[in-house]
Amino acid sequence: MQVSVETTSGLGRQITVTVPAARIDQDVNKQLQQQARTRRMDGFRPGKVPVSVVKRMYGKAIRQDVLGQVVQETFYQAVTQEKLAPAGFPNIEFRKDNEGEDLEYVASFEVYPEITLADYSQVEITKQAADIQEADVDQMIDTLRKQQASWSEVDRAAADGDRVRIDFEGFIDGEAFDGGRAEGMDLVLGSNSMIPGFEAGLIGAAAGAEVEVNVTFPEDYHAENLKGKPAQFKVTVKTVSAQELPELNEAFFARFGIEETTVEGFRAEVRKNMARELKQALKSKTKEQVFSKLIEVNAIEVPAALIDNEIDAMRRQAVQQFGGPDSKIDPQSLPKEMFADQAKRRVTIGLLVQELIKANDIQPNDDQVRATVEEMAETYENPQEVIDWYMGNQEILNQIKALVLEDQVVDHLLAAAKVTEAQVSYEDAIKPAPRAAAE
């Protein structure tokens, strides 16, 4: 077997492989003889079919199967011999594949980048820290009560916090525009679910009122044809409803799976859940910042094949998340551009993290794996059953080990960087980082 390698781009490689005809013929003959012994054909006794007959009838198909097997084997041998690490599957082009001649094919593919990790000691990281105040617990309980609130119609003007049922139609320069019309829509005033000014324009309107609301679409509005445009909405208020918050009692606590009978016990459970959420939010923000800096100081070329694979995985995830397991949506119908930037970032982080793990011989810490499982089990009714299930399921346990390994990489980078701490409020702490929010 002869092999030659050519660099076609930064990560692009092209290898030309020549396989002697004798090897191809030998493998083809083996297959023909095997078929002659096992194939049943009219007019011949079992095992007595002449090889020449099998070749005449099935020779081309057998040769194609052999070529496929030979290419698979010799490609692996070639990249191993040349110390190449292909990223993704190769594109195979046959140059010569005639019977009796040496097989020659060209394989085009990308390789993994060679990574030399940059010094992380000059990187500056700001870790947020926050405490949960009693006012934060009050606000969380108020939010929970609003989620379980009921509504009753009232015969008065709408106030902030009320829910109105409305019909409306929007106009720009006197012309109605697409998507600017709705009937029987429920809107909570003060929820900021409409463009700025719309909800405020309905405060003071009673059922049966016809109101004209003048607003201006934000410059960053998602519809290109509406960005920054002044608009008039003609609104008919159908009903006004006031919110009725549930009492803090045992029945209310049970709605959240909390077996408490006192307000103090309920507050303690809420605070515990808020602490868990806060810890995860702060951890995610730190990790996001650490990885962003890692990418910033390590400019590497990323194989397009890996990005495409990640885009396909994200497409499938999106369909499963938003369409459900029985969705008829074809993942490939989702625009590639929707996922391209995020996919490239994920692949880049993955390559750098793997290099850090290899360079520093980082192994998953068993105690940390156990602690992670126990923390995940805390939210279940019977934590020990969940712990036993996780620890006994090797596939799931490997996923947790991968998460722990990633956390250990973050800790390794934090130990090398210049880290400062910034105290923030609970509300600011649980807000996702700008990049995470955008994704």
From TrEMBL:
PPIase FKBP-type domain: which residues? 161-249
Q: Name one GO cellular component term.
A: cytoplasm
Catalytic reaction equation(s): [protein]-peptidylproline (omega=180) = [protein]-peptidylproline (omega=0)
User: Which UniProt keywords are listed?
Assistant: Cell cycle, Cell division, Chaperone, Cytoplasm, Isomerase, Rotamase
Q: What is one Gene Ontology biological process annotated in the Swiss-Prot or TrEMBL record? A: protein unfolding
Q: Name one GO molecular function term.
A: peptidyl-prolyl cis-trans isomerase activity
Q: What does this protein do?
A: Involved in protein export. Acts as a chaperone by maintaining the newly synthesized protein in an open conformation. Functions as a peptidyl-prolyl cis-trans isomerase.
What name does this protein carry? Trigger factor
Organism lineage string:
Bacteria, Pseudomonadati, Pseudomonadota, Gammaproteobacteria, Oceanospirillales
